[in-house]
Amino acid sequence: MGNTFGQVFRITSFGESHGGAVGVVIDGCPPGHRIDLDRVQGWLDRRRPGQSHLASPRAELDRVECLSGLVNGITLGTPLTLIVRNQDMKQDHYSDLQDVYRPSHADFTTDVKYGLKAPSGGGRASARETIGRVAAAAVAEQVLAQLIPGFSVLGFVDRVKDVQADVSKASTYTRTDVEAHPLRCPDEKQRPAMEKLIVEAQKAGDSVGGTIFCGIHHCPAGLGEPVFDKLEADLAKAMLSLPASKGFEVGMGFASTYLYGSEHNDAFVKEGEKIRTATNRSGGIQGGISNGEYIYLRVGFKPVATIFKDQQTVDRQGRELTMKPKAGRHDPCVLPRAVPMVEAMAVLCVMDHFLRQLAIDAARGPHKI
Amino acid sequence: MGNTFGQVFRITSFGESHGGAVGVVIDGCPPGHRIDLDRVQGWLDRRRPGQSHLASPRAELDRVECLSGLVNGITLGTPLTLIVRNQDMKQDHYSDLQDVYRPSHADFTTDVKYGLKAPSGGGRASARETIGRVAAAAVAEQVLAQLIPGFSVLGFVDRVKDVQADVSKASTYTRTDVEAHPLRCPDEKQRPAMEKLIVEAQKAGDSVGGTIFCGIHHCPAGLGEPVFDKLEADLAKAMLSLPASKGFEVGMGFASTYLYGSEHNDAFVKEGEKIRTATNRSGGIQGGISNGEYIYLRVGFKPVATIFKDQQTVDRQGRELTMKPKAGRHDPCVLPRAVPMVEAMAVLCVMDHFLRQLAIDAARGPHKI
Amino acid sequence: MGNTFGQVFRITSFGESHGGAVGVVIDGCPPGHRIDLDRVQGWLDRRRPGQSHLASPRAELDRVECLSGLVNGITLGTPLTLIVRNQDMKQDHYSDLQDVYRPSHADFTTDVKYGLKAPSGGGRASARETIGRVAAAAVAEQVLAQLIPGFSVLGFVDRVKDVQADVSKASTYTRTDVEAHPLRCPDEKQRPAMEKLIVEAQKAGDSVGGTIFCGIHHCPAGLGEPVFDKLEADLAKAMLSLPASKGFEVGMGFASTYLYGSEHNDAFVKEGEKIRTATNRSGGIQGGISNGEYIYLRVGFKPVATIFKDQQTVDRQGRELTMKPKAGRHDPCVLPRAVPMVEAMAVLCVMDHFLRQLAIDAARGPHKI
Amino acid sequence: MGNTFGQVFRITSFGESHGGAVGVVIDGCPPGHRIDLDRVQGWLDRRRPGQSHLASPRAELDRVECLSGLVNGITLGTPLTLIVRNQDMKQDHYSDLQDVYRPSHADFTTDVKYGLKAPSGGGRASARETIGRVAAAAVAEQVLAQLIPGFSVLGFVDRVKDVQADVSKASTYTRTDVEAHPLRCPDEKQRPAMEKLIVEAQKAGDSVGGTIFCGIHHCPAGLGEPVFDKLEADLAKAMLSLPASKGFEVGMGFASTYLYGSEHNDAFVKEGEKIRTATNRSGGIQGGISNGEYIYLRVGFKPVATIFKDQQTVDRQGRELTMKPKAGRHDPCVLPRAVPMVEAMAVLCVMDHFLRQLAIDAARGPHKI
Lengths: 369, 369, 369, 369
Description:
Chain A contains eight helices and 18 strands. Chain A has helices spanning about 35-45, 105-115, 130-145, 175-180, 190-205, 230-240, 260-265, 335-365; strands spanning about 5, 10-15, 20-25, 65-70, 70, 75, 80-85, 150-160, 165, 210-215, 245-250, 270, 275, 285, 290, 295-300, 310-315, 320-325.
């Protein structure tokens, strides 16, 4: 269970990292939209490991294939299924770890939950599972581009360990700025220090974490439901469902908790006929509902659990042992690849809430209070 | 929409702050459990405003009434409905604000979304909406106490503005420690400074925010689903669905992002026959699934938006104006009352995932891999 | 579980027949619609027992009360909660049956399922549970009347035991025709024979069943989803969820299975600019989707299980015995009261699918295939 | 939307009849069960067209492929994905019908709903869509066989047009009896007349309908929820979601509506220590919950809409015309192939409710009422 996300734009993710394929079924994709599969492939390429010296060398091609839901590139309104075959299955790589609970991985908890050892590579806990989400978001983004003029989502690496990028210009960065370097941090000044941290961690067989910043431009006002399905609540769930994420904040987030109310409140002002906020400390969401301003959020990712140092652990037979991992596939820092994942979850949240709101708008009665 | 939380233990919240009643329907409560309504009332009393000089003087009695689902105090397995009548309806209190969009409240977004002005008191965005959640959690907690030996949840005020409590002993605090003072912070040393901040903010017509720490003791291993419904993802959603919350972290959270993997990983060790972790930086959840260790998390609450200072804003007719609020109901700091709300959402998450896992456990096949 | 119906217009029913109240929470009711609670009461009055000599003498007032979701009679878009207090609680009436499994009632299955004896009156299996559904439908009908010009639903008693009404004019009958007589059969010629059957069954302490015919006028084309949520599939579930229903058919239903395809197919024709069918054997639904024609269906209700004759059975302690019921509350025929229940479920299905389709319509892309 | 069925054992169907593949994702399949894909293939072979002279000559191989969820034939508890590639894509076959609304097909309603013409073969309305359901049921059946001793489901052709099989021995028929003849009617006496009807309809370019009878052996007592998700309600939805089905009845169904209550009630008796019913007119379900007896139901299928006779219709451009179909793929009678479809939906209903009940059983409290 728990492999479906969304209420109206509903995606179901499937596939283990070392099975036949990973993929997604999108139920609720509106009909009549043109979907460019090359654009979907572009998203997947950004998510893919092995893009640079900073990431895992797993040499997958990750070619997306559409099984249903499109005819001549146009959505039918029926379930749109996208898969990526698994090709680079070096199971032996992990074979000596089959029965070892790797520290801070999902091996132990998966065994407790399902009564079986996930095959090497981690089953559903692998970052490879995110292919389905990213592919679905790449579809959603194309539909939203048609339905909401100016809509876009942009994430970037905000901090690597203790090296913080300048986010004061976050809302002005472009995809080109971000993609200019495989690290996916648009701050050229901080980038070298970040890169150094990652390269040195890799040399040391260690890993580093950090944060991703993500902004949503031109999200219409009115999205999000007032109680459990607040827009920030669904964004929080979306982000914490990503592998290795440990924290989430929206708008000023935890920093807002250090302010007085009088310092944090966003005054309303007129801009022509439009009602806007003079500041945007709320991050574009008030009372769980978007207010039409720029939405921004931050997601914290722990240093990934796979490291190449000796670690104490226990195996499936309950024997204590010291794991001495040989070098293998290894992302010393998940952050650059996490950028499209964070963007994907943001797009999926907006898409779902946008469709939910369309029904409310269309069914609204004539009375005012 | 969006008024239902949970998959198997499914609660539906209803009621505006100034309508006839607020309440909750619980669908999926297991049969045959004794529920003490006085205990439910106890939870509601902790959530209620007006408990001390630190909180809003709204003098509600908030007596819980059970409409269905219990016979002689025993759950029937049918929908359990709890309501609290609204009694203290001083609508005039807000009457001069009827058409003003209060800064950083939900007035504007609610108007955009539903095409109507939320009645005074804020409709569903009011903290009063949380009565239903807390009542439902008070039921869930009694069922869980029966099903999971030792299970308990304890929250407390962790930080007010920049005054931080000592959390190094968080897992040893008791409810008595927390309830010893209306501020609900068990750290006696920091409490006076916290109290001073709140009292001064109130005098200044201002507000302060901070963080709540919440721990879950004796959560069984195996709860949470590997992909979208990770235990921490559902906890994140639960917490961000609370009014005024802006951030969430689990385990070491954002602090973990400053560590190397070798500093963060939790080694597995044997404790008798039991497999445990030597450290608990993960916060009791790995790969989205509980590992049997102490679960802990932190929620950030912004300073509440209601302040008694002049603020620039716009009214419903699009006129810019300066709001000059008269003194009214006003919590200068939501944190003490947010403690039972955070606990409630934690209990509801565990209850739902516990029931979900029961079916998996019971249906497990004989084969191992 | 299983107390919620609908995806977008989602109702949650609660309440036992002899608890504090029965009622419903409607989540997803569009904002800005005027709801006349007298009209809701009118629906409930039609559903209520004791309306005539043909029905149970249970003298409930069944006054509807609104707890949330309305301000000045206008929907807020928030959960709309309606309850009816239980007042006429003659528990003693059944007290000698507390431990007896009444044949063809839910007593035995409820005990197996929940491990407890449903209190007298039958708990959730009682027809009184349908109050929530009927109240919700009375709200939905008022919203649909605003959104779909000409929309209406009309049910009537189609057959009592083997006395069949003339349905050749079904689509022309009016509510006045149906309500002209407490039997709710608009066919004046067959009504006396039906009435005789019911009166004689009552005298004999026995019961009779039959069928309800229900028509939906001016349902827009395009409602219903092609696979599992076909419009007729959701109607079938809706109807079979009513107490005592045992069969469902749509359009010509089982009668269609005796025809050749060439006799059953509905030719398409033009009527002005509109595409219509020359005949309507499909009953207004093709491929699970409404085609804009008159929708009609039939629901079969068994003779109710409560009879006043000696019956062999077993009690909770496993002892065989002969039940010798004293006269009590007793509807010898559920059909007249089932008319508003069937109408209610039809309205709820259309309302939900209408809102679902609004989102698809609004999000449709520009491309055709 | 509407491509997902079930709450806990949740299947999502995808694929058009002429796209890349059709298939299903099963979310919620319990871990540790051995699944024999050959057995899944066996179910699909029974569903496949072209099995005999009685059915469509479409020569598909329909080989099932597993993309995820199994390792070495054992379920992982993760989403289990099964697909069947589409191979026999004679689109030209229908090319001259591209713009014609075939009478009583889904062409017109699909166009209204989605604003686009489904490609030839009917998109999701095609019987080929049922591959996913049947494959999922073939998995569920193997899990249920492990969890419920003696569990089995058996359907057969009950009536072709007006030729009725003897169902008095329905509960004693075996799969061998049913599969002995491609017509899938175990009544040897009536089979020739049924066959004659079908063969003659085919020769005449016409089609015939009829009914399927389906029985469920050894369904545990206690399955089904008391209100909306009654076992018969979910069965009704399941069956009416099959292409061409127009009616459903459970137990004595419509026949029960001709009886007196005293003739229909099922007396309880003891059989050793077990409580059973002396008769089984209810069909194994009382108050929406299974009582442990044999469950039986009947589904009515209209004569299929595809016939080879001239028919009046309208095309997409709104022109009236006479369709003069050339001979093509054509099942003159869907009934033999509908047998495994009906069985599949029955299995899926039981599987889902069985898992739902496991959680209730496991979480039951100690108190009795």
